Amino acid sequence: QGQFTLLRDSRTDGSFLVHHFLSFYLRAGCKVCFVALLQSFSHYSIVAQKLGVSLAAAKERGQLVFLEGLKSCLDLLFGEGEQPGEPNPLQFLRLCSPDTSFMFSSGSSCDLRALFDFVQASLAPGDGDSWKGPVLLLDDLSVLLSLGAAPVAVLDFIHYCRVSVCCQLKGNIVVLVHSNEDSEDEENELVVNSLCHHSDLILWAEGLATGFCKDVHGQIKIIKRLSLRQAAEQDLVQIYQYKIQDRNVTFFARGLSSAVL
Amino acid sequence: VFTEEDKYGLYSNLLFKYFLAEGIVCGHDLFVASAKEHPDKILKELPAPLLDDTHGKELGDEATAVKSEDFQDSMKIAWRYQNLPKMEANPTTYTKFGHYYDVSKKMSPELCQSVKWHSFYLYEELSFEPKIKAWNMNSGYARLLQSIQRIISQEGFDGSDPQKKQRNVLRIGIQSLGSVLWGDDVCCSDTPEDPHSLTKFLYVLRGLLRKSLSACVITVPAHLMQNKAIMERVTNLSDMVVGLESFIGSERETNPLYKDYHGLVHVHQIPRLNSLICDVSDTKDLAFRLKRKLFTIE
């Protein structure tokens, strides 16, 4: 409870971890707020079905609040007009311009406040709610930078979410970010490094250094940041390799893929 | 689908035309956008499709040519699209997706006219009075997005018209996005004035594509982009990214390993949609060559 998990991928696609956590928490009976910035609802729905969970049903019974970023963006830019009292969570897209990114003008706020308000409202306990613990799931944070949000704004947003979800509501947060070792995207690296320092658990999926392989799709590093909570503790690092299948992901110790044995 | 252009844009232009030509042969609607040349001109220069009776013979010639060289692991990749053509009279003896084209011949005007197509030529668009809402984006890109959205909605590609019996696909081709001609300086400056315009454009476009029956191929002069961070972000926002590297003017031109080829194909990213896994092919080292009639990737 109150845990911040960072999903990180380098040289590969770590979204299988997102699919896992989504179905995991829904099956566990948690209330989930899923901020899906890069893919459509049907994409997650189809995969979740293979993993045995119906997103549509979860939405209907109020267990899942799904923010489809692509759709919100279209509503913001092509929509007729905002409904009063319901600001678009992605409104920073219209407010942040190159000159205001680094200074805060009096009127418009170039931050992710609207997105945070959305998250907070989604996970606020309602009457008659019997869900076990709220969860915020976000795929993926790096997109916000591409849309013009400053790194500071992104980190502020995450900070506010932690205070609200992890501390106040005793819920969990799971966030996916992309990062490559030789990346030249300094803003992204800044955000990723900062998040790493403040995460309780880091799941880092990496493509194999030796290149593409049919039987081993990548390696995953599991880092339990014990040093975060207790000063003298060392972080626990475990490394496995994995292969992704249609409905499942198999993990095995390095070099022990069934293809090799 | 995102194509990184080769240095002189020769081969990426060819791929771009293949995409559009395939659309015409399949009966899809087209939307062509460019800041460089008028879309009318692009459409006049599409390669002619090889129809069945002539095609079998052509393929036979090509096939024997390939066999005579010692390529054990070579793989011929035809353009793979979903629909088989309705105009085929005889069933084919081999399964194939898509069609073959003769690069030395132009597509007949009658065939070109057989589909509905829409064009966006930046200079014509800019002359209209702007009706731009505060979008916070390069105006050329914003205009293009509005144009695409209008076509998708008016022609019912987003399923908004329940009366429409037959649903069709819209193929969108955008040429040389990000180049100076679009009013963006991502390709000529390390610190562009508005580094987010291109990525915002792609995000909105992605949204439009996801909610309609459309597919889009964009070519970008990536070799001109000095700010690599932007290319990384662009890659993350695309479903599929293919880079073309031509050997013209490079030391590889004289490398005996590449003597039969004109360039390399780098597949940087493949789509992983609606599934945990993606379709991984056995080989990722691909090269292309342009013969008099045929463009092949092996």
From TrEMBL, chain A:
<keyword id="KW-0963">Cytoplasm</keyword>
<protein>
    <recommendedName>
        <fullName>Elongator complex protein 6</fullName>
    </recommendedName>
</protein>
<dbReference type="GO" id="GO:0033588">
    <property type="term" value="C:elongator holoenzyme complex"/>
</dbReference>
<dbReference type="Pfam" id="PF09807">
    <property type="entry name" value="ELP6"/>
</dbReference>
<dbReference type="GO" id="GO:0005737">
    <property type="term" value="C:cytoplasm"/>
</dbReference>
<dbReference type="GO" id="GO:0002098">
    <property type="term" value="P:tRNA wobble uridine modification"/>
</dbReference>
<dbReference type="GO" id="GO:0005634">
    <property type="term" value="C:nucleus"/>
</dbReference>
<dbReference type="InterPro" id="IPR018627">
    <property type="entry name" value="ELP6"/>
</dbReference>
<dbReference type="InterPro" id="IPR027417">
    <property type="entry name" value="P-loop_NTPase"/>
</dbReference>
<keyword id="KW-0539">Nucleus</keyword>
<comment type="pathway">
    <text>tRNA modification; 5-methoxycarbonylmethyl-2-thiouridine-tRNA biosynthesis.</text>
</comment>
<comment type="similarity">
    <text>Belongs to the ELP6 family.</text>
</comment>
<keyword id="KW-0819">tRNA processing</keyword>
Automatic annotation (TrEMBL), chain B:
<dbReference type="GO" id="GO:0002098">
    <property type="term" value="P:tRNA wobble uridine modification"/>
</dbReference>
<protein>
    <recommendedName>
        <fullName>Elongator complex protein 4</fullName>
    </recommendedName>
</protein>
<dbReference type="GO" id="GO:0005737">
    <property type="term" value="C:cytoplasm"/>
</dbReference>
<keyword id="KW-0963">Cytoplasm</keyword>
<comment type="similarity">
    <text>Belongs to the ELP4 family.</text>
</comment>
<dbReference type="Pfam" id="PF05625">
    <property type="entry name" value="PAXNEB"/>
</dbReference>
<dbReference type="InterPro" id="IPR008728">
    <property type="entry name" value="Elongator_complex_protein_4"/>
</dbReference>
<dbReference type="InterPro" id="IPR027417">
    <property type="entry name" value="P-loop_NTPase"/>
</dbReference>
<comment type="function">
    <text>Component of the elongator complex which is required for multiple tRNA modifications, including mcm5U (5-methoxycarbonylmethyl uridine), mcm5s2U (5-methoxycarbonylmethyl-2-thiouridine), and ncm5U (5-carbamoylmethyl uridine). The elongator complex catalyzes the formation of carboxymethyluridine in the wobble base at position 34 in tRNAs.</text>
</comment>
<dbReference type="GO" id="GO:0033588">
    <property type="term" value="C:elongator holoenzyme complex"/>
</dbReference>
<keyword id="KW-0819">tRNA processing</keyword>
<dbReference type="GO" id="GO:0008023">
    <property type="term" value="C:transcription elongation factor complex"/>
</dbReference>
<comment type="pathway">
    <text>tRNA modification; 5-methoxycarbonylmethyl-2-thiouridine-tRNA biosynthesis.</text>
</comment>
<keyword id="KW-0539">Nucleus</keyword>
